[in-house]
Amino acid sequence: MRYLPLTLDDRREMLAAIGVGSIDDLFADVPSAARREGLLDLPLAQGELEVERALSRMAAKNMVAGAVPFFIGAGAYRHHMPAAVDHLIQRGEFLTSYTPYQPEMAQGTLQALFEFQTQVALVTRMDVANASLYDGATACAEAVAMAHRITRRGKAILSGALHPHYRTVCQTYAQFSGLQVEALKPTPGRADPIDIDGDTACIVVQYPDFFGELRDCSALATRCRQAGALLIVVVTEMVALGAVTPPGEMGADIVAGEGQSIGNALNFGGPYVGLFATREQHVRQMPGRLAGQTVDADGRRGWVLTLSTREQHIRREKATSNICTNSGLCALAFTIHLALLGEAGLTRLAQLNHAAACNLADRLAALPGVRLVSECFFNEFVLRLPMAAASAVAALADRGVLGGVPLSRFYPEREELADLLLVAATETATGNDIDAYEAALREVLR
Amino acid sequence: MTGWSQALRAPSMAASDTPTFTGNRGLQVEEKLIFEQDAPGRCGVDLPEPPPHNNRLGGLARCSPIGLPGLSEPQVVRHFTRLSQKNYAIDSGLYPLGSCTMKHNPRLNERLARLAGFADIHPLQPESTVQGALELIDTLAHWLKVLTGMPAVALSPAAGAHGELCGMMTIRAALSAQGDARTRILVPESAHGTNPATAASCGYAIDAIPNNARGRVDLAALKAKLGGDVAALMLTNPNTCGLFEDEIVEIAAAVHAAGAYFYCDGANFNAIVGRVRPADLGIDALHLNLHKTFSTPHGGGGPGSGPVALAAALAPFAPLPWIVHGDAGWRLVEHAEGAAAAAIGRLKGFHGQMGMFVRALAYMMSHGADGLRQVAEDAVLNANYLRVRLADALTQSYPGACMHEVLFDDRFLKDTGVATLDFAKALIDEGFHPMTMYFPLVVHGAVLIEPTETESKASLDQFADTVNALAARATAGDAASFHAAPRLTPRRRLDETGAARKPVLRWRPNAVQRDAAD
Description:
The structure holds two protein chains of two kinds.
Chain A: H1 8-18, H2 48-59, H3 83-89, H4 92-95, H5 107-124, E1 128-129, H6 136-151, E2 155-158, H7 164-174, E3 180-183, E4 200-206, H8 218-227, E5 230-235, E6 254-258, E7 274-278, E8 291-295, E9 301-305, H9 312-315, H10 328-365, E10 371-372, E11 380-384, H11 389-398, E12 405-406, E13 420-424, H12 431-445
Parallel strand pairs in A: 2-3, 2-4, 4-5, 5-6
Antiparallel strand pairs in A: 1-7, 6-7, 8-9, 10-11, 11-13, 12-13
Chain B: H1 4-9, H2 73-84, H3 107-113, H4 116-119, H5 131-148, E1 152-154, H6 160-177, E2 184-188, H7 194-201, E3 205-209, H8 219-225, E4 230-236, H9 248-257, E5 261-265, E6 285-287, E7 308-310, E8 322-326, E9 329-333, H10 354-389, E10 395-396, E11 406-409, H11 420-429, E12 436-437, E13 447-449, H12 457-475, H13 479-484, H14 496-501, H15 511-517
Parallel strand pairs in B: 2-3, 2-4, 4-5, 5-6
Antiparallel strand pairs in B: 1-7, 6-7, 8-9, 10-11, 11-13, 12-13
């Protein structure tokens, strides 16, 4: 087998050196009832060619986003990735190294994480960011738990325009922690009625919200501050921050985000990279790893993992989170892509996304019976169709167009949302794609 | 013994200590932060002018700069290439971190995960357009079910600790459904830190169980702690001392007799894959780290994937989404309804770590039933070989055969003035990543070595010779050279205390730069 270096002679020699007669002697502690003598009922070993053939067959059954007019977002966005990103993250020194527990052997990973933390802090306009969490949804749940720890209050209020997966992840995480989660009703196109009381630990809003809408949260931040609650702002499309006022400037206490759209492919939903940023005074309540600057024995600048007394491997049951493995390589991809973009590139990329979405929205809203529900948005918006959005999406897919996500997929119980379609456009959408979408939708609505 | 022993006998500062003009040392190149290489207006991508459009940002257009640096593509490529060269990796050598299973990461897996049919599909496309992706996930689930012997597997957890959370939540949900409000979780003292942290985040109190003199759970102590308020036992098997819990059948029986569930941390599944099915040990829930046993790359700290195999009693509580197969092909169950009405909810966005699923399945198919069994055997063989090769110089904590990793403590360093940490740092100068240090907590100055099955005998011999020579040097009274280690890395020993005392967690422009910008 190509991944196993030991030869039959090696194995014999090594067993002799150990002083046992057979490999079975080394498994003697396994209770006899649990020992499997024969092979399990699974296929036998295969060469690269065979495995590649089998998996390629499965891959070929999927409709590839890049091969069709594609307009799906809802928390995962398809952007062009510069070739250098994937090349660099595949360098074995990044790809096949462990969490940087031995800093002298991992200065590369640590410096990249320090750059990642700085980039996230800059883009969100927050003081500090951690070295990543699993994804945006778990970052949001961790933010809620952190607000609970800081305020010692018992209730979290989730905006109705928070990504429904984020909402359910918060509810799942909180169900056994003693925290009460109040999720407001989804009302696309309208702001949430938010009441903050003395037991409110935090308010969670999304920006741009799940329905694409941009809402200023400065006033809400002020209300939170006055009431002693924390404002958590969730960002699922970081490219937006190239064009719009950052949450830190509007008074967010914690920003929890999904970093996928910078540096990472769609990957059918994962792996992605959770972003987490906050104010300086909350640093010691943060979940996850942190890279920090220090000096070595010769006084030269270097980096280490730091403040680990917050973490499970030191604090065990008193840790701020149970997280260990995070999304290091996805964070690296984010860092490389954002380093390539820089100030000018991110700004331009955001303009291109906004332009594509505005033009698509104008074209589609001009179709008979179609209404644009969203007012202010970045690269995603909601349309009201004169038919069930789920049927329209299925009919569009039959015509080779991936036209968005029907809100009924997330809210099957809410009939009032059945005709609503969530549509995204990024810089990858060409004029021809927009023409094709318009023509296909016209046909479907006929 | 070959060349490296020479240097050990005559440690020399040699040319490496002579300062260079640049601060670089040959292939080790000093590299500034990207923020220190900024030139305003420079950009590493070429993007067109946006077409005319009706702006809809309302009053929320950004009005101040972000502060991101401008670099060209060659600068970015060189920067990250130089950073990569300051890392050690499995690709560069033996990485014997105990409990981490740093095995070879096959490149076929990388190629397949990047097939457009897997990498360029959106999780919310209509199900009819992603049948191949759902088939792949279901196929992976089948392999994991056969390997564990368990009837169900929850695939969405993103890493081992996330899998623990999934397992403990399903247990708590199952107990709640029976109206049984148990409050305690038993966790051995040797457990990974994630175990107690996970149990605590599910609202449980943690009760530690001691090890016995053989490095296993003390069965009598366990039985004494079991009671009507115990929800579950969380046990790692093989355990973090590298030993198989040989009384596991009795342990499972005692746990079940008390009405509790048996959770197993499967971080060490590599030792038994294909040879032992956890279901046959009486385990009710077990997470598998695809980034350990099934070779998906660690990536400098993730991403991972932590599927959880579940017994029939826990399966109804598995998190969403579920993948089911029916007349119209594969389908995602995304809401707690019908058969999934009791699901604990959702543990992450979308459907799990697809990119890791592709890699893990490619790995399992490459090995097959026969190869996976060989993986466990070679992993255990390699660890035992190191055990005997190091037996004279090091002090094994629990004598006798081990599984896939071998635990030593620091008795061999007694009175040498050398601590486990110093010993590890000296190994760095020898070109090896150190083993896991100071874990598990049940022995003093732990040294936990896991070579994995992808090391050759020559590689193990070189490592053993080096460790033995270092041990001899420590015993010979050369503590100073250990305290000075590492000397040959891009940075020497780093001040971790200072880093924590005055945390600097991001770059900031210095005052001069800020003034200039104003």
